[in-house]
Write a structure and sequence with these properties.
- The structure is a homodimer.
- By secondary structure, chain A is an alpha/beta fold.
- Chain A has helices at residues 4-11, 15-22, 29-42, 48-55, 71-86, 100-112, 125-130, 153-166, 183-199, 217-226, 243-255, 289-304; strands at residues 60-65, 90-95, 117-120, 136-139, 147-151, 172-176, 203-207, 228-229, 232-233, 237-240, 265-270, 284-286, 312-315, 318-320.
- The first copy, chain A, folds into 3 domains: 4-45, lambda repressor-like DNA-binding domains (434 Repressor (Amino-terminal Domain)), CATH 1.10.260.40; 56-150 and 289-315, Rossmann fold; 153-288, 3-Layer(aba) Sandwich (Rossmann fold), CATH 3.40.50.2300.
- The first copy, chain A, has 12 helices and 14 strands.
- In chain A, α8 packs parallel to α9.
- The interface between A and B is large, with 53 and 53 residues.
- β2 of chain A pairs antiparallel with β2 (90-95) of chain B, so a sheet runs across the interface.
- Chain A binds a DNA duplex through α2 and α4.
Chain lengths: 327, 327
DNA sequence: CTGAAAGCGCTTACAG
DNA sequence: CTGAAAGCGCTTACAG
């Protein structure tokens, strides 16, 4: 391995001088040339870790998500990595696998590895607060003493209700799943309920439980069947807390022989697309994933540079058509 | 930040002694206890980079893929990270964004950061060979002096042809897209053609060009329309080099009013599922992604430990039904 | 078994 | 402007 010392002796200068040209500090044109030539000739590559030992900056950010199999998370990490790259930061990928212990492990590791910041989605509040000195920006989780970037979940619920009602639905159902720790999906339901109340449209809620190990499809099937009479579903508009859940519901509606969107309109949440690029998988409330990633990265960079940042950033959502709503 | 020095003075021993208990070397029970207590009390976290400076191991592997938006790559990285974690290695995520320059940047960075190994999918052969001292395992790309893990693409093509023919198709079409640098999609076509020849079934090939910026849907539409007469398509079985392309083709078939699978059967390649977990998006040749990730990680670890590894690992594929084939 | 010391590859005051 | 030296947080021979 060629080090700064090799470059120095090859160029006939001191290591300090090499360091200076490497970091753009002023040296004589003559020495600058000699060093650059030696760097080129020897194919020198700076050891960033050695530098970090002295400067205390690693230019690395740990990105913690439950997994990147879930399209929403994959999409988020896609934009985060892209953005961190623009700032010259490296992405250290951590999948907690929905497992609190792995979450803790990665949080500790992030500190051990002296990453400059932590970004992502994690549920663990206690370990997170221990992060102490290291900047943390959470997405969709507003924990104590952490900066948060999220989208407008309450308004998402309102939008969903508004669209269903405007498009003719008169008896609504909200189905949620996932950890109750994530208050965000609850806000979606709150916004939905609030809009229904305002428009004086009846609205039921079904909690389909945790979805870490897949959706409770039988529970959903059973619930829907109980609410049918004469082959017709009592509800004519459904909003689900995520697109994944929405697709599971769509399957059950088909299984029950219910036409979507003719008999029942369905709106999901997240705005996921076919293969992450094509058509929307169903009508949905789309989150501004790219903008969220940008804001999160921007915030963590600000924190690293000890610049002021907003504690809470809420980005707007929008309704997108995906064939499960009428008109 | 609490360092090994703080622990040493707190425990009343030398730093070397602290280092020894940290690394599981033998010290007296008495000292071991004192050090462990101090570590606990001070909340000491080892600085892995400082250690790496001395040991020359960072326990970090760079994973380079075009992007993680594409479900196949997301899935691959999902399993790779999971597996590297098992071995105690960290994942440094690099998305080349299908850009040769970014590819080079990351390859250089991987060396600068002194990662222990490089894993992934990259097209750049020249820069890769410069990696020189650092272990490299490629997936789906068999480059000179690099270890490769892939799935049996030729057999995938054979399987696709066999399934189409067994299920009644008699006039076949293979549609490919993507970089010609990736010889793998070509092998799929080769296997397909070989099986057709053997079964004496006619087989056409359509090269739909590069797909980095989306599929050439108009080209596909035009080609299919040219091969129609009396509202019927001349082909009754289509195999595409990827599932993404398969879905694009499916759209065009629908647009032309052609029934799938009644009139035309369609088989893709990769075996992608709804939201990466649910039903297959179309009938397909499924790659053993988890096994590929395992093998790739295993190989890179072997290389790091300077243990012998197979230069080429080819894993078996299988046909999966996804509603675009009959029976 | 343990401590003092050298050294990993860098950066950064500090003299000159 | 430049060189020699100290030091970042560790590990590892080397004496004792």
């Amino acid at each position: 391995m060629v080090t700064i010392k090799d470059v120095a002796s090859d160029a006939g200068v001191a290591v300090g001088t090499v360091s200076k040209v490497l970091n753009g500090h002023y040296v004589s044109a003559e020495n600058k040339r000699k060093v650059e030539e030696s760097v080129e000739r020897l194919g020198y590559q700076m050891n960033y870790y050695a530098r970090g030992l002295k400067t205390q900056y690693t230019y690395t950010v740990a990105v913690i998500v439950p997994d990147i199999l879930t399209p929403f998370f994959a999409c988020l990490v896609y934009y985060i990595e892209k953005e961190l790259y623009r700032y010259g930061y490296r992405t250290f990928l951590c999948q907690s696998m929905h497992d609190a212990e792995k979450d803790v492990y990665y949080l500790q590791l992030a500190r051990q590895n002296k990453v400059d910041g932590i970004l992502g989605i994690t549920f663990n509040t206690t370990e997170l607060s221990k992060a102490g000195d290291i900047p943390v920006v959470m997405i969709d989780r507003h924990l104590e003493n952490s900066i948060c970037v999220t989208s407008d979940n309450f308004n998402g619920g309102e939008l969903a209700a508004g669209q269903l009602i405007d498009r003719g639905s008169r008896n609504l159902l909200f189905i949620r799943s996932g950890s109750l720790l994530s208050s965000e999906t609850l806000k979606r339901g709150d916004g939905f309920a609030a809009a229904c109340r305002e428009r004086k449209i009846p609205c039921q809620v079904l909690d389909s439980g945790d979805d870490a190990g897949g959706y409770n499809v039988e529970g959903i099937y059973g619930y829907l069947r109980e609410h049918m009479s004469g082959g017709k579903l009592e509800f004519d508009g459904i909003y689900t807390s995520t697109d994944g859940l929405g697709l599971a519901v769509l399957d059950q509606l088909r299984r029950l022989g219910i036409q979507v969107p003719q008999e029942v309109q369905l709106i999901g949440h997240d705005g996921m697309r076919q293969m992450n690029r094509g058509a929307y998988l169903l009508s949905s409330i789309a989150q501004p994933i790219e903008a969220m990633a940008r804001a999160a990265v921007e915030n963590v960079i600000h924190l690293i540079r000890k610049e002021p940042v907003e504690e809470l950033t809420i980005l707007p959502v929008k309704f997108v058509e995906g064939g499960t709503t009428r008109e």
